[in-house]
Specification:
This protein is mainly alpha-helical. It is 68% helix and 0% strand. The longest helix is centred in the middle third of the chain and has 26 residues. The chain is elongated and about 55 Å long.
Length: 244
């Protein structure tokens, strides 16, 4: 497993408690189990959970995501979210201060739920080319109509009009690009920082393409992306090994 999974900056992006991260934008401490597998570290998707299992704050975050997915970013209301969460609507302002703050937190929660496993796959494989292929396969397996996916689409559009939301999403994106650049450099790729931006943009584009072309096989992008990054594709490595 690529050692970056032990990097608290990366772990904070993909595996943090999203609610706390949205409030403070501080990185949490790294998990003590630094040798654990990526699968064990990725948070389980948050589906329907009994109210007794999670706190009011978490119920509101999930209810906000449901409301955004059903009604749209601008149309979801405090009353709707409170009803979905089964709580008094005054608790929205008690826990978050405003409906806008709650929606921003729901966007980060959707980000963690939807893309954490594909992102970790980039670092879990022995080669970056292998990580790209597995990451793209996992992105291709995502349901573009799922609640987290719809919330992501809505939040990206909303970020054009919401400076704080844009700053929060940018913070997460820059953290991901930073640690991806380290991985690219580790594998001998050229121009690691621009290359990391290229991969991030390609993954964003892949998510959007899946929305309108669900039959597209995203794994075909792995080899050209690897060549663009200046790292050997798995097939090239195999040929090199065979010659030896």
């Amino acid at each position: 497993m690529y050692p970056t999974l032990r990097n608290p900056r990366f772990r904070a992006l993909m595996l943090r408690n999203v609610g706390e991260g949205a409030r403070t934008r501080h990185m949490p401490k790294a998990n003590a189990q630094t040798g654990a597998s990526a699968k064990a570290l990725v948070a389980e998707p948050t589906g329907s959970v009994e109210p007794a299992v999670i706190g009011t704050r978490e119920r509101l975050v999930r209810a906000a995501a449901s409301g955004i997915a059903r009604s749209g970013w601008g149309a979801v209301t405090t009353r709707q979210v409170a009803a979905l969460a089964g709580v008094n609507q005054a608790l929205v302002h008690y826990h978050f201060g405003s409906m806008d703050a709650l929606k921003r937190e729901a966007a980060l929660d959707a980000l963690a739920r939807e893309v954490s496993e594909p992102m970790v796959a980039l670092f879990e494989e022995e080669t970056l080319a292998g990580g790209l292929r597995r990451c793209l396969a996992l992105v291709g397996a995502l349901d573009p109509q799922s609640e987290p996916a719809v919330v992501l689409y809505e939040s990206m559009l909303a970020a054009a009009r919401d400076d704080e939301l844009r700053a929060i999403l940018n913070h997460a994106l820059q953290a991901f690009r930073s640690v991806l650049a380290q991985r690219i450099a580790h594998d001998g790729g050229s121009d690691p920082e621009p290359a990391a931006a290229l991969v991030a943009a390609a993954l964003d584009g892949a998510l959007l393409h899946r929305l309108v072309d669900p039959g597209l096989d995203l794994t075909i992008l792995a080899a050209p992306l690897s060549r663009a990054l200046g790292v050997a594709t798995d097939s090239a490595r195999d040929r090199k090994g065979a010659k030896r």
